[in-house]
Amino acid sequence: MMKKNKRGFASDNNAGVHPEILEAIVQANQGHVVAYGDDPYTESATRKFEEMFGEDISIYFVYNGTGANVLSLQTLTDSFQAVICAETAHINEDECGAPEKFTGCKLLTIPTENGKVTIDQIKPHLHSVGNEHQAQPRVISITQATELGTVYRPEEIEAISRFAHENGLLVHLDGARIANAAVSLDMQLRETTRDLGIDVLSFGGTKNGVMFGEAVVFFNPDLAQNFRFIRKQGAQLASKMRFIAAQFEALLTDDLWRRNAQHANAMAALFSRNIRDIPRIEIAQPVEANAIFARIPREHIPELQREYFFYVWDETQSIVRWMTSFDTTEDDIMDFVSLLRRLLC
Fold first, then answer.
1. Do 25 and 123 sit in the same domain of this protein?
2. 303-327: pLDDT as tens digits
3. Which of 79, 147, 195, 261 has the highest CB neighbour number within 10 Å of its CB?
4. Where residue 276 sits, what CATH number does that domain have?
5. pLDDT (tens digit, 9 = 90+) per residue, 205-218?
6. Which residues constitute the domain of residue 303?
7. Helix/strand/coil for 141
8. Helix, strand, or coil here: 143?
């Protein structure tokens, strides 16, 4: 059995909470404030987002990433419409059908080898526009960084956004790991989202050192007119919202978001450098953020998992996923690499 609380490589969701985030929660735990977001902590966190992305935006805090994605899409669509996304997208693979349930929309999925969709792959889904017998495309949802650890180049997102808007579509970005992507590209958060034409952003915090909470950012406030009602109906309106908001204020102060993501990405780079020469390990995707996808001998997976928890991503190809986090250490990496060498060399 794996040692209790031992840092593994299953997910950045498994990591703890950054000390500066914990301190922000403690500081917010003073006295009484008005509930449901009418408090100074939420106001202050909102100003941080406005400093980051511009004042003419709308920001709403929710509990989790599925809530952020589902409510974003619900706000943008009618039930007879459709959302175009990668087959590997979180909204397709890992949200238990919640997008379909709450939006009523059909997901039009695109097979992809690297987690990224292209305009040429999107175009065939527009052939149904105007056909009353088929769901009508309304939103293109992309993920940055993708579920396969890859990162869209700015010109790729900009091209998708331009194509979408020229065809009457909107663009939603699942940014559960947007900080890792921005660091990978050496760009600011606004440069990787709003400036590239994104309409709505699910801004991730949980995977980057926050205890709980995500933010939905509308770069066109007109799109958000009904969101507060949809959030309440969707059971994502926090009564003690100050504890979500205080975390995001801390995350966006003194570039904590960047520091955390830089460390996680650097640990993934260190990891990949040290396993490239190990026999019978094949890195299956470019290591561009904080994920390593590798093909390894399946007979060794159970023994490795007894020491370090991680997930098998593709059983048929024996591909595993190793994630690094803000609190991953070099010793964690090198200890696991040593175990890999003992078993595979």
1. yes
2. 999 999 999 999 999 999 999 999 9
3. 261
4. 3.90.1150.10
5. 999 999 999 999 99
6. 256-344
7. strand
8. strand
Give the separation between CA 206 and CA 213, rounded to whole angstroms.
Answer: 6
CA torsion sign for 147, 13, 262, 49 is: positive
**Contact predicate 294/270, CB 8 Å:** no
Indicate if 97 and 63 belong to the same structural domain. Answer: yes
- Tens-place pLDDT, residues 45-102: 999 999 999 999 999 999 999 999 999 999 999 999 999 999 999 999 999 999 999 9
Torsion sign over Cα 315, 5, 287, 331: negative
SS3 helix, strand, coil % of the chain, rounded to 5? 45, 15, 40
Q: At 133, list the tokens.
A: 């017998």
pLDDT band at 185 (very low <50, low <70, confident <90, very high): very high
- The neighbouring-strand residues paired with 292 are 322
- Please name the amino acid found at residue 75: T
The CA distance from 280 to 125, in Å, is 40
